[in-house]
Amino acid sequence: MNQAASDPTVQPVPTSVVAQVDAADSTLSNPKQAVISLGSNLGNRLETLQGAVDLLEDTPGLRVKAVSPVYETRPWGVDPDSQPSYFNAVVVIRTTLPPSSLLERGQAIEEAFERVREERWGPRTIDVDIVSYADVVSDDPALTLPHPRAHERAFVLAPWHDVQPEAQLPGRGPVADLLAGVGAEGVEARGDLELRLPE
Question: Where are the beta strands (DSSP E) in the chain?
Answer without folding.
Answer: 32-40, 62-67, 71-73, 86-95, 127-133, 168-169, 173-174, 187-189
